[in-house]
Amino acid sequence: MRTLHPHCIGGEPFPVLLTISGTLEAGSALIIKENIPEDIAIHHTVPNVPASGLKNNQIKWLKKFSTTTVFAYVASLPGEEGKTVNFNGTAANSNDEKSPILGDSTIVIGKHHWADTNKDNVIGDDEILTVYDHYSDIEGLGLDIDLIEEIWLGSGY
Question: With the C-alpha atoms ordered 67, 59, 48, 50, is the resulting torsion angle positive or negative?
């Protein structure tokens, strides 16, 4: 399942989570292919993807599956306000089963921070808790949670 916030600020980083769960046997090989927009900048990936895994507008991961396996990346998109950008991808296992990654598939470039879900120019208590719940345990993601916390502690952005 892809978790992609519905909006972001052009040029500013935002996270994308791919959570894979299912009936695969733990230890089975898993290939994730995430198709990304042509003009996107990828800042960090978890697990780390070498440069050769980022080509042809696609991020590719190969990993052993555990009960639930999370793949994530931080990206930014240039563009004018109101532009809608699409994401899609697939998960394939060693049993030759290939499935689309479901969940959120579009993001709109706008003037509100991705964590500001209600677009009121403030990161509220429920919004900062959601950020911590989803992203704080992902080592190496490179998401500036401290900056989001500063916005939450302040009077807005």
Answer: positive
